[in-house]
Amino acid sequence: MEHEPQAGLRARRKLETQREIHQAALELFEAHGVRETTVHQIAERAGVSPRTFFRYFSTKEQAALPGQRRMLRAIDSLEITDPDPAAVLRAVETMAETVMGADNDPELDEHRRVAKLLARDADLQSLAASQELVLPVRLRARLAEQLPEADPATLLLISETAVAVWRVSWIRWGELATRGETADPVAVYRECRARLRSAVG
Asked: What is the CATH number of domain 3-63?
């Protein structure tokens, strides 16, 4: 029992260090660009060594991306009550809207900064896309767990499409932010979703 407070302190410090590196990367990328920024500069800004940097992130680009923690948490807590495919899709879309957040989301400003970086940097977009590969896999597994009788191809389509619309919405939101346009991310998500439905009939 005596070791628990110390363990908790170490865990908090680890999270703080990770966030400090993340913030340093964001600030430097915004000021100088992704390509021009080095790991050494990020580490120096965060007050850590390059070796410590690599304990938390494998690349400088990864340090700027918040990862998919919120989406993964939402997927893991997703509950499906109606097995009808249309109802499943609606439940997944509602979950995605929740993750997109609203204007009172305390993390919204940071999301906007990351989205703006993504909108103007193709390399960062590619890395974000690769990190997001785990999302449809996790979502499909969560749906299959709750709907064991469902058609696997249907669950795959729902999972892949839902994550694609979610990702495109963040990119679109970043493009708007880059142009100085203020937009509700949920509204952008709904617009992208509607455009897809219109395109596929």
From this structure: 1.10.10.60
